[in-house]
Amino acid sequence: MHNEPLAYRMRPRNIDEVAGQQEIIGEKTALYRMIKNGHVPSMLLYGEPGIGKTSLAYAIAGTSNLPFIALNATVSGKKDVEQVVAESRITGKVLLFLDEIHRFNKLQQDTLLPHVESGAIVLIGATTENPYHDVNPAIRSRCGEIRQLTRLEPEDLLGVLQRAVKDEERGLGKMTIAITDEQLMRIAEGVNGDARKALTVLESVISASDETDGTTIVEDWLIDNLLGRIGLFGDKKGSHFYNLLSALQKSVRGSDVNAGIYYLAHLLEIGDLVAVSRRLLVMAYEDIGLASPEVGPHVLAATEAAVRLGMPEARIPLANAVIEMCLASKSNSAYQAFDAAAKAIHEGKTGDIPLHLRDAHYAGAVDLGHVGYQYPHDTPIGSFGGWVDQQYLPDKISGTEFYKPVIAGEEKKLAAIYERLKEFRKK
Fold first, then answer.
1. CA distances from 74 to 101, 127, 159, 190 (A)
2. Burial of 78 from C-beta contacts in 10 A (0-12 / 13-18 / 19+)
3. Structural domains of the chain, count
4. What whole-number distance in Å separates Cα of residue 112 and Cα of residue 105?
5. Does residue 218 sit in the same domain as residue 132?
6. Which residues contact residue 238 at a Cβ distance below 8 angstroms, ignoring those fewer than 6 apart?
7. Cα–Cα distance between 170 and 212 in angstroms, integer?
8. Of 401, 403, 396, 393, nearest to 348 (Cα)?
9. What is the C-alpha separation between 284 and 296, in angstroms, rounded?
10. First vs last Cα of the chain: how many Å apart?
11. Which residues of the chain fall below pLDDT 70?
12. Any idea where the AAA+ ATPase domain is (predicted)?
């Protein structure tokens, strides 16, 4: 009887047993050839839980035959690193796998630097967070490879599960198990690309199945029941959460209703309702803007309702908001105009406020020359309201245009008025 979990036992022993990740460690990659030829570069492996960061590190260790030490930064500290350094002085080059490397503070990471640089330690750091945000630049610069791993495809996971069922040494091969490839594929498709979860579900299914005449018989309902307990990956403070927010905004900006609803559902299953509502409100003004000005108030009402309702009812007004934004006419002209004006200010393109626009509500304003302002409301112009042709920008930037209309939705009307007023000024 094995004491270790099946997922632990079935870790690949060398890089030829790694499932998926062919673009990183496949036979035709430079990294595969380097390791096969005996050279292991220091590297950072980035990706979500269960997609093979730890397994890849163990596989590289198994192929390289270097002395291998594994640490987890959540429970290890400077003393543990010093012990690894001491080990390298005795055995020569050491391969150090440091899981959750982003948990090390700057001092702890700096302890590694001279030894990674000298080659005494080959570092494989693994992190679920973006290494460009959470790993010190000094460590990053000493890692020849920074690779983002991706979720495994169901076909890759099916191969992992089939090996686990047949493997007599590490897997379940000594048992007689009645399980079909279709049932294994159901597990593979239900764990969202997570090999660890796939093997854990398989082990749980086998443990919960009845045995008849020495054969363990797996039933579909057991698989469905256990898959229903599998949680979505997510951390509302982690990179994946912000990646989901980004994907939601870009899907809405691209008018893809189905993608927008999908990412909203994923976020609400794992995330922070307030953060999601805030992002939706930003999107209403950033991406929809003047083309559909009614959308902003609609989304504000929807997000306020969602926060007041809480989950699960909050999904209803937010789904309405996402679909409306996806299908609304879109414009980013307003905030682009603001950014252009701010850029001009930072570049020193400023000037004195025209005298006739300065505050004149005090004694002595006339003596300072704060006169000449014409009140637009006194001069109606058609159905537009009041308008007077007078200068508002400082002399140095007079005539500069920051606003560039987008000819979409309701903004077409605003653009027409804008162009008409420019014609009046020319006259």
1. 8, 11, 32, 29
2. middle
3. 4
4. 12
5. no
6. 128, 129
7. 24
8. 396
9. 5
10. 93
11. 1-2, 229-239, 271
12. 39-154
